[in-house]
Amino acid sequence: MKLVPALILLLIITSAFKSAMAPGVISLGYDGNYVEISSVKYKEDQFNVIYMHRDGNRVKVKYFAAADFNGNNVFKRYQKWVDGKSLILVSSGTYMDYDGVPVGLTIDNGVVVNKTLAKNFDGLVIVNANGGITVSSLKEGDLKLKGDGIDTTKKYDLRKSAWDMQAFTKWAVGHEATVFQSHLLVYKNKLDIAFLNASPAIAPRRFLAIGKDEKGKIVHAIIQSSEYATLYNGSKKALEFLNEFKDMEVTFMINLDTGDQDVFKLYDKDGTTNKMIKGAKDISVAVNLLAYYFQ
């Protein structure tokens, strides 16, 4: 009989713990050797950088491109997925139209959401089911695919070949890949955005860059600056910072939205929310989400 009060107390504590650990509120924590968080003054700009090492495929990526066909919006899908995850960060992703439809070719976990290629977005982003991410240039038509005995040397040009487009869509659906388009700002360590074609609008900037560190190992970096800049100038400064200060050779860099859905939530290695580096909007308003987690 003496065990009953202890059992009741245990249930109360467990219930309170589960409430505190509600999905999306707190991360389970991660190995700090894989993630470096810093705020750096470089020349005249202040950069916040989350630098992630991909050794051993421990750092992974998940992208929620749109609401599903069951009526669950991105936030509901994220809440269901995130329970039990060791989150590193969550950020708003790429562009949506006024009806909430992703702009450009979009495939969400193998489900085709938008099959139309956007002409002004040269970056084709592919998030694999295993948590990896790659980007190819639609302008160069240099996309290569892997798996299921496919010819890994063939280059797919989605803009010029309807057959290539059909074959790629079939591959993405079959591999439950997530695909979206974005501005390709840097490609093969060179600026890929033209000054004259870039929007003159100034805003805070946030970018996703992937490349190699000074040891030749794959690294992912989220870099953001609160300084207002055009997309061209912001990209140029970010590339210079990554090249010179971080010794990083940038394979590609894409833009992440800091406009109507400026969502960004960062976690420290102990699982607590980083209060210094954050977005302006609550995660519940996001119409798409890019999540980095540790496994």
Sequence-ordered SSE layout with sheet pairings:
Elements: H1 3-20, E1 35-42, E2 45-53, E3 59-64, H2 74-82, E4 86-91, E5 106-108, E6 111-114, E7 123-127, E8 133-137, H3 162-174, E9 178-182, E10 184-187, E11 190-191, E12 203-212, E13 218-229, H4 231-245, E14 249-256, E15 264-267, E16 273-278, E17 289-294
Antiparallel strand pairs: 1-2, 2-13, 3-17, 4-15, 4-17, 5-6, 7-8, 7-9, 10-11, 10-14, 12-13, 12-14, 15-16
Walk me through this protein's architecture.
The protein is α+β, with helices and mostly antiparallel strands. Helix content is 19%, strand content 35%. It is built from four helices and 17 strands. A seven-stranded antiparallel β-sheet has the order 1-2-13-12-14-10-11, with helices on one face. Strands 3-17-4-15-16 form a five-stranded antiparallel β-sheet, with helices on one face. It is globular. The chain starts with a helix and ends with a strand. The N terminus is likely disordered.
